[in-house]
Automatic annotation (TrEMBL):
Gene3D superfamilies per the UniProt record, alphabetical: 2.30.42.10
Main location group: membrane
Name the record gives this protein: M50 family metallopeptidase
Membrane topology qualifier: Multi-pass membrane protein
Subcellular localization: Membrane
Domain PDZ: 115-213
Transmembrane region(s): 99-120, 386-407
Classification lineage: Bacteria, Bacillati, Actinomycetota, Actinomycetes, Micromonosporales
Length: 415
């Protein structure tokens, strides 16, 4: 039930974000005097609406987005009534049209920034000094956090009834103890400890450790588990020993900030997220084969793109596992991605309209300098084949991601 609740909550959050995207277009257009005739949440048949002034507001039956209708977005639009010619959007200065068309993405960025600031103050943002690679984790001091159990099979899941108790817990080891030796073999880093423990036969072993700077020893009964080779998570599993501990990194995974310091931390994190988003978008074409492989039965690559369906499923998993921070960080990342994606200079995206507006402005300036007649506005009808091609490619890609998210979804938690 909590999983379904999480899916619904995340889908609702996305719908609200998209509605605010359209509200950004509407509010800026109205502020400049452009005529906005409709603002709706959803598509399809109208469920409810009302009219205030010259704009109809309402809700439609298919909650998969929203739209607002600005009169005269292009010179070819025939929705301009007599007397409204001067209020057609295409007649406004290019800077005003740019603001209106970018306001949707600006809303997504604003949502992400506000959410990040709240997270920075309440729960903390990821620490840039926290190790993120296997080599980084292996180099950490062998300071342990005691697990409640050991999972015998090679599975990333929470403890269940019937799982053996943690040997470290049974031997009275505590969180924060630093392992220094196993059966007399010195240990200085987490990587050393893993190598030594896995190289020791299951059964009785002597563990030396430091607790608050005081040396001590404990006799433990190492458990037998199935694990792949270190550094090769997809390798064949074999029987090795386990102590029942996790790494307690020397640096915290997250850092909380005060209300003022949170602004700078949010800006820094947003800059890093922008770089990651651009890199992720650049990798999309090469990830298409991996999506197809996932649909045809191969293991799903966690680095493949996901659709709104996949994001909602991950949101459901987060709520099911009481990982609300994961839920909100996923929401932030999705908003930022949508904001960036909508600014791509391709029709029918907002960025395509912005690119055309500035192309017209640059062309007019150039023709004026060389003494030629201004060629006027771009004919959007001539761009329709390219627009349809973008829609087709986008539709196929969306179909691929949705299908992969249904038949072979990415999961964050074992269910």
């Amino acid at each position: 039930m909590s999983y379904l609740l999480g899916v619904v909550l995340f889908a609702l959050a996305i719908l609200i974000s998209v509605s605010l995207h359209e509200a950004g277009h509407m509010l800026t257009a109205k502020a400049f005097g452009m005529k906005v005739t409709r603002y709706f949440v959803g598509f399809g048949p109208t469920l409810w609406s009302f009219k205030r002034g010259e704009t109809e507001y309402g809700v439609k039956g298919i909650p998969l987005g929203g739209f607002c209708k600005i009169v005269g977005m292009t010179p070819q639009d025939d929705d301009v009534e007599p007397g409204d010619e001067k209020r057609a959007m295409w007649r406004y200065p290019v800077w005003k049209r740019t603001i209106v068309m970018s306001a949707g993405s600006a809303m997504h960025f604003a949502i992400a920034l506000v959410a990040l600031w709240i997270i920075a103050v309440s729960a903390g943002l990821p620490n840039s000094k926290f190790p993120t690679t296997e080599a980084g984790f292996r180099a950490e001091p062998a300071v342990v956090a005691i697990a409640p159990c050991v999972v015998v099979e090679n599975a990333a899941r929470a403890c269940q009834s019937g799982d053996p108790a943690s040997p470290a817990a049974q031997a009275q080891l505590k969180d924060g103890d630093r392992i220094t030796a196993v059966n007399g073999r010195p240990v200085s880093t987490w990587g050393d400890m893993l190598d030594v423990v896995r190289g020791t036969k299951p059964g009785t072993a002597t563990v030396s450790y430091l607790r608050d700077g005081t040396p001590a020893t404990a006799t433990v009964d190492l458990a037998a588990v199935q694990r792949p080779p270190l550094g090769d998570p997809k390798g064949a599993t074999s029987a090795v020993s386990a102590l029942g501990v996790a790494l307690q990194p020397s640096t915290p995974a997250r850092v909380e900030y005060g209300p003022v310091a949170a602004f700078g931390a949010t800006a820094d994190f947003t800059g890093n997220m922008a770089v990651q988003t651009v890199h992720a978008m650049q990798r999309i074409p090469q990830k298409v084969p991996a999506l197809w492989n996932a649909i045809t039965g191969e293991e799903r690559d966690v680095d493949t793109p996901i659709s709104v369906v996949g994001a909602s499923r991950l949101g459901g998993e987060a709520v099911e596992n009481n990982a609300w921070l994961v839920f909100f960080m996923l929401f932030v990342s999705l908003n930022f991605f949508i904001g960036v994606f909508n600014l791509l200079p391709l029709l029918p995206l907002d960025g395509g309209h912005i690119a055309i507006a500035w192309f017209e402005r640059a062309r007019s300036w150039l023709y004026a300098r060389i003494g030629r007649t201004d060629p006027g506005r771009v004919d959007y009808l001539k761009l329709m084949p390219l627009t349809y091609a973008v829609i087709l490619v986008g539709g196929v890609f969306t179909l691929l991601t949705v299908t992969a998210d249904v038949v072979n979804p990415i999961t964050l938690f074992s269910r």
